[in-house]
Design a protein that fits this description.
Blueprint: H1 2-16, H2 18-23, H3 27-79, H4 85-107, H5 109-126
Helix pairs in contact: 1-3, 3-4
Length: 142
């Protein structure tokens, strides 16, 4: 989010100051600056994607091992006539739906962190002091 806001702020500043940039013939300087800032933004997006894939992979592997553990324990209980096959199917169905929901909660950390950063940035702007207006009131008489 920080890299995104830096990228957007840079583009807005460049667009607002395009007359000055062209007037002083500094297009190449601002082109290089834009490329560096946009490259940083792209690298952050790439890193975020890699992090999301790692979390997905690790949570998926954990899900498989937990389901295998539940299946083995439940199957052992069926073989010892402690529970019935129908109960085994119910246990597997309930546990798989619960574990998938828990996995999705683990994947929700990235959007939550993005929202947290966005809120922090929003509160930075909202905490700025208002511009003081000290002026003389002008009355027009016709």
């Amino acid at each position: 989010m920080e890299a995104y806001s830096n990228n957007e702020a840079n583009y807005i500043d460049s667009i607002r100051g395009i007359e000055a940039i062209k007037g002083f013939s500094k297009q190449n300087l601002f082109l290089k600056k834009n490329q560096v800032i946009f490259g940083n933004f792209q690298n952050k997006i790439y890193d975020l994607g890699k992090l999301n894939l790692k979390i997905s992979l690790y949570s998926g592997i954990a899900l498989v091992f937990i389901l295998l553990g539940i299946l083995s324990i439940s199957s052992h209980s069926v073989l010892n006539n402690e529970i019935k096959v129908g109960e085994l199917m119910a246990i597997i169905g309930i546990s798989s739906s619960l574990l998938i929901s828990i996995t999705n909660l683990a994947l929700a950390t990235i959007p939550i962190q993005e929202a947290r950063v966005a809120f922090e940035r929003m509160f930075e702007y909202s905490s700025l002091d208002k511009e003081k207006i000290n002026g003389i009131k002008i009355l027009f008489k016709f």
